[in-house]
Write a structure and sequence with these properties.
2 domains, Aspartate Aminotransferase, domain 1, binds D-serine, alpha/beta, 4-stranded antiparallel β-sheet, 43% helix, 7-stranded mixed β-sheet, 423 residues, 13% strand, Aspartate Aminotransferase, domain 2
């Protein structure tokens, strides 16, 4: 009989003995995930295989540099993990080059700026209040502090990206880099149109694909890779990998991107996370994942329609992706109130600014809902109607008198679709 190779950890018993306080947090968080509806559009439930990799001794290894060119000895095993991950990323996305080392999406974006733009130069990106990201030029972020960022947005009438405005701003400002990609834009982005505009003004095209890259991996929506010079993303959203970032680019930019990640922006990579990304990329290449990705979109479309039927308006009329942005102005409830009320009823989502929002961001007029988690749990379109009804009742529950009743219905629903089933 062949002996199984020994794997060391994750040993939860040891954590309970050594540090019961933190063990209690870990268990309570698992119970929170299991006991409620998780509708944050940027979250997911990663697999046991990815979790095992994250809890491994790969976490111990210093490996500054790249495979075969490290600044530390003993990197032969982590080199294998990184090379496997790079190859899987290139195969899955049809990319010429991949860098798996960014610690997060913001780090990946910082590296992309570092590779292509000098401080003070111009960048054209989507404004945060219209669905962009902090790293797309917010004044409180490095992007807004170090670069001259000009913002485009969505049209007021149909709430879709205004490509005419993008072209006009590009012609006027001649930016070094144009960024597309968003955190709260429910529609497909026309990457070919952005490419055309970037070519016209001689700009680098960066696509921040963090939110939707899992849908691209699962072939549920078109890929930005053929159009972009550089694609940055996180690995923990629809893609369902470990928390972290990644960059794809054309071969001609490979050296600049790698140098911008290390040594310009980061030191030692998190090799347990790099290996976890490799595991997630293998999972994402499966037929199962393709079915998952298209179900995420079908569920989000059903949820948007069902919320509309409950009197809650989806921004832009619906969604093509994994998320819907819901305008609550007609309901007379702010996003902050809705987040608090749904939270009290066991439904986790986030308040979100809507385009042309009259409220400040901390209050906001909308909520953002996403279907990556509930789809991982196995829910389908028929379940979205029930979820929409629970959200609607919770959002309108001004005095909190219905919260307990709604929470017990949420618990009953998720009991049939357990996240991380009990052994
Ligand atoms: N925080 C992520 C989101 O929720 O969209 C983006 O970084």
């Amino acid at each position: 009989m062949t002996q199984q190779p020994q794997f060391w950890g994750p040993d939860f018993g040891a954590l309970q003995t050594e540090d019961p306080e933190i063990a209690d947090v870990v268990v309570s968080e698992l119970e929170r995930l299991r006991g409620g509806l998780q509708l944050i559009a940027s979250e997911n439930f990663t697999s046991p295989a990815v979790l095992a990799t994250l809890g491994s001794t790969l976490s111990n290894k210093y490996a500054e540099g790249y495979p075969g060119r490290r600044y530390y000895g003993g990197c032969e095993e982590v080199d294998r993990a990184e090379l496997i991950g790079i190859q899987r990323a290139k195969d899955l996305f049809g990319a010429e080059h991949a860098n798996l080392q960014p610690h997060s999406g913001a780090s990946a974006n910082l590296a992309a700026y570092g590779a292509f733009v000098k401080p003070g130069e111009k960048v054209l990106a989507m404004s945060l209040p219209h669905g962009g990201h902090l790293t797309h030029g917010s004044k409180v972020n490095f992007s807004g502090k170090w670069f001259d960022v000009i913002s485009y947005g969505v049209r007021e009438d149909d709430e879709l990206i205004d490509y005419d405005q993008v072209r006009d701003l590009a012609r006027e400002h001649r930016p070094t880099m144009i960024i597309c990609g968003a955190t709260a834009y429910p529609r497909l982005i026309d990457f070919a149109a952005f490419r055309e505009i970037a070519d016209e003004v001689g700009a680098i095209l960066m696509v921040d694909a963090a939110h939707f890259v899992g849908l691209v991996a699962g072939k549920a929506i078109p890929s930005p890779v053929p159009h972009a010079d550089v694609v940055t993303f996180t690995t923990h959203k629809v893609l369902r990998g470990p928390r972290g970032g990644m960059i794809l680019c054309r071969e001609e930019h490979a050296k600049a991107v790698d140098k911008a990640v290390f040594p310009m922006m980061q030191g030692g990579p998190l090799m347990h996370s790099v290996a976890g990304k490799a595991v997630a990329l293998r999972e994402a290449a499966s037929a199962d994942f393709q079915r998952y990705a298209s179900q995420v979109v079908t569920n989000a479309q059903a949820l948007a329609d069902d919320l509309a039927a409950e009197g809650m308006r989806p921004v832009s009329g619906g969604t093509d992706t994994h998320l819907a942005l819901i305008d609550l102005q007609e309901v007379g409830v702010t996003g902050a109130e809705a987040e608090q009320r749904t939270g009290a009823a066991g439904i986790t989502l986030n308040k979100n600014a809507i385009p042309y929002d009259p409220q400040p961001p901390a209050v906001a007029s909308g909520i953002r809902v996403g279907t990556p988690c509930v789809t991982t749990q196995g829910m389908g379109t028929a379940d979205m109607k029930g979820i929409a009804s629970l959200i609607s009742r919770a959002v309108r529950d001004a005095d909190g008198s219905q919260a307990e009743k709604i929470r017990s219905e949420v618990e009953e629903l998720v009991r049939a679709f357990p996240a991380y089933p009990r052994g």
